[in-house]
Design brief:
This protein is mainly α. It is 35% helix and 3% strand. The protein has helices at residues 11-17, 25-31, 37-42, 55-62, 64-67, 82-85, 105-109, 121-124; strands spanning 6-7, 34-35. The structure holds iron/sulfur cluster (SF4) (2 copies). One iron/sulfur cluster is lined by residues 39, 43-45, 80-83, 101, 104, 106-107, 112, 121. This is DUF2769 domain-containing protein.
């Protein structure tokens, strides 16, 4: 399968508000976050109770193989990697259930606990 890459979209905004001395390790790592096959493979959102009752998410999951073949990728068709893609547009996301991002290798690798928000990216938006 081809790997297509979307550069996360906040790099220029970030440099617009911070000087170089204030760039932390976490900021540098987050700027390097790319939507790629590795992140999609490691993402555990498909097991998460927050979204696994949503019909819309089920449909997106069933179509995921085809959605990943599209060029460019449409992040809103991919029910995973919300820490990079941002919020889900699906209804049926249940905010009262626990987010399981903390069990994900991507979460540890990119120090996402140090970013904002600290999880629930599917309805809080991507990590910055
Ligand atoms: S941190 Fe959460 S949203 Fe990001 S890849 Fe892991 S499970 Fe998915
Ligand atoms: S971002 Fe967190 S809350 Fe949302 S589906 Fe993924 S693991 Fe669950």
């Amino acid at each position: 399968m081809n790997i297509r890459v979307i550069v996360i979209g906040f790099q220029s905004r970030f440099f617009g508000v911070c000087d170089a001395a204030s760039v932390t390790e976490r900021n540098v790592v987050s700027m390097q976050m790319l939507l790629n096959q590795d992140i999609i493979n490691k993402c555990v959102c498909h097991k998460c109770p927050v979204q696994n009752q949503s019909e819309c998410v089920h449909t997106q999951m069933a179509e995921l193989k085809n959605s990943l073949k599209e060029t460019p990728l449409d992040p809103h068709k991919i029910p995973k990697a919300y820490c990079v893609n941002g919020k889900s547009l699906c209804k049926g996301i249940d905010h009262s259930k626990p987010c399981i991002c903390g069990s994900c290798d991507v979460y540890a690798k990119y120090h996402l606990s140090e970013g904002e928000p600290g999880g629930f990216y599917c309805f809080e938006g991507k990590s910055v």
